[in-house]
Amino acid sequence: MTLAFVVPGLDEATSEKAIAILQNRLSQEQEAALVLKHAHWNVTGPNFIAVHEMLDPEVESVLAQADETAERIATLGGTPDGRPDTVVRNRTWKPFDVEGRAGTEEYLKALIEYYDAFIAEDRKAVAELDELDFVSSNIIQDHVQQLEKFHWFMRSHLA
User: Domain 12-90+98-158: which topology?
Assistant: First the structure.
C-alpha cells in the first residue's frame, strides 16, 4: 500500500494497519446497506409496514457510517475501496442468507444475526484501533453505538 501522506503523530506502518482495519469495516458497512435494502424490498406478512419503514432510516445511517469510514481512510492517506469485489474479498463475517420474499419474523431474525456479527466485528476493530489511532477508534465506537440501538429495535420488535 502506498500512502498519499501520513497524518501528524502517526507513522506509515501504523497508518497502514489502521487503514486495513477501516477498509474491512467499510466493506461491511457497504454490504449492510445492501442487505437492509434487500430486506426492505422483500419483507412480507404481519407488521410488514412497520418493518419496511423501519429499515430505510437504518440504510441511510449505515451509508453515513460508510462515508465517514471512507473519509477517515482518505484522511490517513489511504484510498478507500468501495468496489463490490472488494466488499466480498474483505468479508470476514457470515453472508446474509435470506433470499427473496419472506416474513417479517424471518427477516428480523436474520438481520439480528447479521448485526450480532457486525457489532462484534466493529467492537474487535475498536480494540485494535485503540492501540493504533484513537481518532479512528472513536469513529467506529460511534458506529457501534448506532448499530446497537438498531439491534435493540429489531430485538424489541420480535419480543
Answer: Ferritin (1.20.1260)
